[in-house]
Design a protein that fits this description.
The complex is a heterodimer of chains A (422) and B (407).
Chain A lengths: L1 H23 L2 E10 L3 E4 L2 E9 L4 E8 L2 E9 L3 E6 L3 E11 L6 E9 L9 E4 L14 E7 L3 E3 L3 E10 L5 E7 L6 E9 L4 E4 L8 E10 L3 E4 L4 E5 L5 E5 L4 E5 L8 E7 L3 E3 L3 E10 L5 E9 L4 E6 L3 E4 L2 E9 L4 E10 L3 E3 L2 E8 L8 E8 L3 E4 L4 H5 L1 H25 L2
Parallel strand pairs in A: 11-20, 22-32
Antiparallel strand pairs in A: 1-8, 2-3, 2-9, 3-4, 4-5, 6-7, 7-8, 10-12, 12-16, 13-15, 13-18, 14-16, 17-20, 18-19, 21-23, 23-28, 24-27, 24-30, 25-28, 26-27, 29-32, 30-31
Chain B lengths: L1 E3 L2 E3 L14 H12 L3 E7 H15 L10 H4 L7 E8 L2 H6 L8 E3 L10 H21 L5 E7 L4 H16 L4 E7 L6 H17 L3 E6 H8 L2 H23 L9 H8 L5 E8 L6 H9 L10 H4 E10 L6 H15 L1 E8 L6 E8 L3 H26 L2 H7 L9
Parallel strand pairs in B: 3-4, 3-6, 4-5, 6-7, 7-8, 8-9, 10-11
Antiparallel strand pairs in B: 1-2, 9-12, 10-12
Helix pairs in contact in B: 2-6, 2-9, 5-6, 6-7, 7-14, 8-9, 11-13
The chains are: A mainly beta (422), B alpha/beta (407).
């Protein structure tokens, strides 16, 4: 079974290689026929000109041009072939099959094949009967896209106007020009003043042709920093349908954050004693202060009372929610503070800290939504020590003695009362 | 209850060994110790006597005038001597008002709710209840001296006291002194009449001396009637306690019960007490003079003219007690009076206090009182005669004789 699997794999690999090798070396005949002396054959921008035919010698001379540039020439005998490069990686092979002298001018029968080239990419494939001088070639349109900004330094939240223009500096008309302007990070599109609708059918070339306005829009800076705007790209074709692509420049914009607002609520928690006897009371003060420059909203402070302490009571602004004392302030204006006092009772001996968790919201004046802020705070340590009468709890004998003394005092008072009662 | 080292003895000074706990040997030691102290009986008779007695008991709890009601729960009466107190009254409400006298020492002599200032009824009640009263005294043991405190003007006190003193003198051989409070002159004719007869009868009862305290006099020097009422009880209590303390204290110069008896037996059988307590450092001469001045005395008298014998007891820190100054002042008094006994008690840290007991040869104020009392008696007599002779009312009543109401 294992061997069978290996054979299948090897066979599959062989077939793939075969297909590739046949593609790589594929030769497609594009023309087989006669060409009179002085006539030419055009394959895209390549011209094969048959300049002289010598029937008696069974030869013909040829010249190969890429547009006006000669790239090869020579003399072929019948059944002899010549091969030259064609565009990017392709090759053209021409074989002289025969020569004839029966007409006004001698003719040569040739077979022209193209190798390593997609035949579909041939946009000109014909005999130019009037000769090479009658050949026409497709140009290269070249769109220069300019992306400009009205300001290169702005503050956070400020607008910048972006203008995109295009000019064809090539030598052929740019057809079906389609522009793409990718979404810009760190900025918010505030307003679009102008935008080309769909693809531009054509943009002519030439100095006298004015620039084509593509976009005018405003961006609002959402973050501070120095950012390069992304390039606008355009895709288009020349008159021969060949595809081209151009990209704009990427102007840089520096965004400072001087305009950005924020709330910064600080918590200060204090206790009136550092040491207290068990069952003693501790007065704690919480001060909430907004040191930012934006109002803090929905300010909420949860006071986390450790188990060894107990919340007794607090000012009106403090309510107990699910056993947790909570302070809630609708709005705390900048440079304002609010103070709250509450009372704790020391339940168990130990060292404790009262901590708090603060949360609030604010608007930075730039973003539509509110931002959130939070912090944590804690008091200095509170040492709960043994109470005055804790020794009674530790040693019940004291209670017994106390009860005995109390009883004795009670008996004494009762006896005295009886003595004086009339 | 009397302290005895680590044990306490139930009782009231009675030597009945069966009532004593817990250990016979300790009891014997206690009794021996107590035999060196004076046994004194203080009886408060009637409403006034009851109140003064209660004030004495309050002062004895400590704290003086400011002693609160709760003191009875945490303190005990601390008399220098062995003192028994007894409150007698026909009005139970007066006994209930007492706060610092033990219930067993408050004896209700049952007769309605008092005798209504009628001494005749009071005397009759005493005769009927005499044995009950005397048994209460008997149960409290034998004494070295007794004080009977009473008002001269009321019902129970003024009528009981002469008879009580007489009965005590018949049965016991210890001296009995009466402290008699004289009424405000404007209190009414019945009170003045009672005062006159009561003092006379007390003198005739065999009392060993009558110490006078005059509400009218204290009001004149002290202010309002209310202040006099409020103040006199405390003033008398303070003086009696000082006297009892002095009689049983170790002294630098000694006065004792014998001296007191000698002083009280002098003069016309009437006496009064002067007292001064310094609240700052003052010369002892000034303290003695103040005790003899009107502000220090309980009864209006000119000491240097009317006194017969005197006993001066001085107490205070040694540094305030200049023997020369004391002698000078005593000599000045004895030059006018005759016999003056003096006693000095040294108490560290105390400002000078002086108690003077003075018997009187004559008492101009008493003569005045009797003049007013005679007028009051005549006034009452005239009223009674008018009622007896008056036929107007009879005529009015006779109009309906033999008639019946018609409905």
């Amino acid at each position: 079974m294992k061997l069978k699997g290996i054979y299948i794999t090897v066979l599959f690999a062989f077939l793939v290689l075969l297909i590739y090798s046949s593609t790589a070396s594929a030769k497609t005949a594009v023309y087989e026929g006669d060409i009179e002396e002085g006539q030419a054959y055009q394959l895209n921008n390549y011209i094969i000109e048959i300049t002289d035919i010598f029937p008696e010698a069974n030869t013909a001379s040829y010249y190969v041009y890429e547009k006006d540039k000669e790239v090869a020439n020579g003399l072929l005998d019948v059944n002899e072939s010549v091969e030259f490069d064609f565009e990017e990686g392709g090759k053209i092979q021409m074989r002289l099959k025969s020569v004839h002298s029966g007409g006004v001018l001698p003719r040569a029968t040739v077979e022209i094949s193209i190798l390593n080239y997609n035949i579909g990419d041939l946009y000109v494939n014909e005999v130019i009967e009037s000769g090479r001088s009658a050949a026409t070639f497709a140009g290269d349109p070249k769109l220069v896209i300019t992306k400009s900004v009205d300001k290169s330094k702005i503050e956070l939240g400020e607008d910048v106007t972006v203008t995109v223009k295009a000019k064809n500096t090539g030598n052929d008309t740019a057809n079906n020009v389609s522009f793409t302007d990718p979404k810009q990070e760190h900025f918010v599109l505030e307003e679009t003043t102008y935008e080309v609708s769909g693809a531009v059918p054509e943009i002519d070339y030439g100095e006298s042709v004015p620039e084509t306005l593509v976009y005018i829009y405003k961006l609002k800076a959402a973050e501070a920093g120095t950012f390069d705007l992304r390039a606008v790209t355009a895709t288009y074709t020349n008159s021969a349908g060949q595809a081209y692509q151009s990209s704009s420049n990427t102007p840089s914009i520096n965004v400072s954050e001087e305009n950005k607002q924020s709330a910064n609520v600080e918590t200060a928690m204090n206790v009136d004693v550092s040491s207290v006897e068990r069952n003693g009371e501790i007065t704690s003060t919480v001060v909430l202060r907004n040191t930012g420059n934006a109002p803090a909203q929905a300010v909420r402070l949860d006071i986390l009372v450790p188990e060894g302490l107990e919340y007794v009571e607090g000012e009106d602004g403090i309510e107990t929610v699910g056993g947790t004392p909570r302070i809630y302030i609708e709005t705390l204006e900048p440079n304002n503070d609010k103070e709250f006092t509450y009372t704790l009772k020391a339940k168990e001996i130990g060292t404790y800290n009262v901590s708090s968790e603060l949360s609030y919201e604010y608007n930075n004046g730039i973003d539509a939504g509110n931002l959130k802020g939070s912090n944590k705070s804690t008091t200095s340590s509170i040492n709960v020590k043994e109470g005055k009468f804790d020794f009674i709890i530790k040693n019940p004998l004291y209670i017994i003695i106390f009860i005995i003394i109390l009883a004795a005092a009670g008996v004494h008072i009762y006896r005295r009362h009886r003595q004086y009662r009339y | 209850m009397q302290p005895l080292g680590s044990i306490y003895i139930e009782g009231t000074g009675n030597t009945d060994i069966n009532r004593i706990t817990p250990d016979r040997k300790n009891v014997e030691i206690f009794l021996k110790w107590r035999s060196f102290l004076l046994n004194i009986l203080v009886i408060g008779n009637g409403q006034c006597g009851n109140r003064i007695l209660d004030s004495i008991n309050r002062h004895a709890l400590g704290g003086g005038k400011s002693c609160g009601k709760l003191a009875r729960f945490y303190s005990t009466q601390r008399f220098k001597s062995h003192v028994e107190t007894l409150a007698l009254n026909t009005a139970i409400n007066d006994l209930k008002e007492m706060k610092f006298t033990k219930a067993k020492d408050r004896i209700h002599i049952e007769h309605l709710h008092g005798v209504g200032a009628n001494r005749n009824i009071g005397k009759q009640v005493f005769e009927e209840k005499k044995e009950i009263i005397m048994r209460q005294i008997e149960e409290r043991g034998n004494f070295d001296m007794a004080f009977v405190i009473t008002s001269a003007s009321g019902g129970t006190g003024s009528s009981f006291t002469p008879l009580l003193v007489k009965e005590m003198k018949n049965r016991y051989n210890y001296p009995v002194y009466c402290l008699v409070v004289l009424p405000f002159r404007e209190e009414g004719t019945l009170y003045l009449q009672n005062t006159a007869f009561s003092i006379q009868e007390i003198r005739q009862s065999g009392a060993d001396g009558i110490i006078l305290a005059d509400n009218q006099y204290l009001k004149n020097i002290g202010g309002s009637i209310q202040e006099a009422y409020d103040g006199i009880n405390d003033m008398i209590a303070e003086r009696i306690l000082f006297l009892l303390d002095a009689l049983d204290s170790e002294m630098m110069m000694v006065t004792d019960l014998g001296d007191f008896q000698t002083v009280m037996s002098g003069g016309a059988g009437l006496a009064t007490i002067g007292f001064f307590r310094a609240d700052k450092e003052i010369p002892i001469k000034t303290a003695i003079q103040n005790s003899l001045s009107p502000s220090g005395l309980l009864f209006s008298t000119n000491v240097y003219e009317e006194a017969s014998r005197a006993m001066i007891v001085i107490k205070g820190d040694r540094k305030y007690l200049s023997i020369d100054d004391i002698s000078t002042e005593i000599e000045k008094l004895s030059g006018a009076v005759g016999q003056v006994f003096k006693g000095i008690i040294v108490r560290s840290g105390e400002y000078p206090q002086v108690l003077s007991v003075l018997t009187l040869e004559s008492a101009r104020e008493m003569e005045n009182l009797y003049s007013v009392a005679v007028q009051a008696i005549n006034q009452e007599k005239a009223k009674k005669q008018r009622v007896e002779e008056g036929s107007e009312m009879e005529k009015a009543f006779s109009q309906i004789e033999g008639m019946e109401p018609e409905y």
